[in-house]
């Protein structure tokens, strides 16, 4: 299976950021973007443009499905991401994390390393200004494996109606809330 490395990302980041003058008093914030599987460059560019316009530099770290299916590889990759965030290029910069889908899992693996040695990574945790999680991967490894198998092998799947309560938990939540607040509609 494919196991991406951060070498390409690190070299790109190193070459891009060595040319920037970062003021120690007001360092430019960095956005760590962890995109979804199979994200197209045009889609990612739209998000990058938003962050560039608001004054961020953007570091994109992609994930592979193998890192989700083989957690040991994901944990190893999370360690490499952590090393990159602690490198000289990034270690003094405020950080915002924007993770999509499986990227949230990858950042979770970074946090596993942080939790094992909170003293060592205190500086990193203090630099994190916020987290944005979009369309996180939910469920178990088994569900992810089944979904990946279906996607790669053209397995037919029974489509559920779009308004099904099991596919629309927010409507289900609001319906229950309304019933609790106002049990007898007027």
From TrEMBL:
<protein>
    <submittedName>
        <fullName>Si:dkey-5i3.5</fullName>
    </submittedName>
</protein>
<dbReference type="InterPro" id="IPR008547">
    <property type="entry name" value="DUF829_TMEM53"/>
</dbReference>
<dbReference type="Pfam" id="PF05705">
    <property type="entry name" value="DUF829"/>
</dbReference>
<dbReference type="InterPro" id="IPR036397">
    <property type="entry name" value="RNaseH_sf"/>
</dbReference>
<dbReference type="GO" id="GO:0003676">
    <property type="term" value="F:nucleic acid binding"/>
</dbReference>
<dbReference type="GO" id="GO:0017171">
    <property type="term" value="F:serine hydrolase activity"/>
</dbReference>
